[in-house]
Specification:
alpha/beta, single chain, 7-stranded parallel sheet, 9 helices, globular
Length: 248
């Protein structure tokens, strides 16, 4: 086992499946203690059993600041430290529709999860990281937040907000030993993508020069690199994982 994280404590949201679970497995395999956070309690229990040692599950609604603060206090009380936060929880909302067809409640829900969820968790863990002058925060954004995907107004706008949040937080904590970065994938084969209309997936995949979706192992590898103690001179940055779609 590669012990690069050497018993560091990592909180990963959206960890019951998809990107969050893949990243949790990667961090655990490299020595981290992983706290899996999700609303889906039964799936969360299964995920923890799948990972095995150095992994616990804490159900939490990341759209509720009160619930997030409870979860973070539980982690800090148990381990005495929080080194890593990965905000992987996300929803696409209704897709394949134009802006005048977007339901206001659906738009609000997507922002509650994708933006407020990142804000709530970062706000709660930052004081614990500041106490030790060390931390790694990774927000999972999307190429949609850089370029916009037609038919995905709520999702694209929310991920643009996450990228903006990353830039601000990266600058604010740049002198503290805490880095805040984002990861902007293109289409990654997850349950969320599988739930989209095939025409929407095809629209997004057609923009990728590699002509394929990314996979979970590729995402987990990049996340571990960004979160490494050795990745210490990059903050406020959005890393590309788009198969050549984004080249800036």
């Amino acid at each position: 086992m590669n012990d690069i994280f050497n018993e560091q404590v990592a909180i990963v949201t959206g960890a019951a499946s998809g990107l969050g679970l893949a990243i949790s497995k990667k961090l655990q395999s490299q020595g981290a203690v992983v706290v899996l956070v999700d609303k889906a309690e039964e799936a969360l229990k299964t995920a923890v059993l799948e990972i095995g040692e150095r992994a616990i599950a804490i159900p939490c609604d990341i759209t509720s600041l009160q619930d997030v603060e409870r979860m973070v206090q539980e982690v800090a009380g148990r381990y005495g430290r929080i080194d890593i936060l990965v905000n992987s929880a996300g929803v696409s909302g209704r897709t394949g529709i134009k802006s005048h067809e977007v339901d206001a409640e659906d738009f609000k829900f997507v922002f509650d999860v994708n933006v407020n969820g990142c804000f709530n968790t970062a706000r709660a863990v930052l004081p614990h990281m500041l106490e030790r002058n060390y931390g790694r925060i990774l927000h999972i954004a999307s190429i949609a937040g850089k370029e916009g995907n037609a038919g995905m107004l709520a999702y694209s706008a929310s991920k643009a907000a996450v990228i903006g949040m990353t830039k601000v937080q990266g600058k604010e904590y740049a002198e503290t030993g805490i880095t805040v970065n984002a990861l902007a994938p293109a289409v990654i084969r997850t349950a969320m993508v599988d739930a989209m209309p095939e025409s929407q997936v095809r629209y997004m995949t057609d923009k990728i020069p590699m002509r394929r979706c990314g996979n979970l192992d590729e995402i987990a590898h990049m996340a571990a690199f960004i979160l490494s103690p050795e990745t210490s001179f990059t903050t406020g940055f959005t890393f590309d994982m788009t198969g050549g779609r984004a080249t800036y």
